[in-house]
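Hi, here's the filled form for the chain we discussed.

Project: internal
Contact: R.S.
Residues: 77
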Amino acid sequence: MNYNLAELAIKQRAKVLSLGGSRNVFRKKLLSMGLTPGIEVNILRRAPLGGPIELSLRGFSLSLRQNEAQNIMVQPV
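And the returned structure, exactly as it came back:
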């Protein structure tokens, strides 16, 4: 079953399937940061009250806003 990145629990691993969003600039930004389809990510932590989500990928940490994470489709591993 596929989910968006914002739906995953802390310490859950997932494989990125697609980068959505209506803005091409947003997609390019994510691709340049290494968040590409096929990469495996790990949810490290979440800020309270709908704040950012911290991910681990390719040996570094990346924080995304909730609305950004909702546009990234993943498959739990």
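Let me know if anything looks off before we file it.
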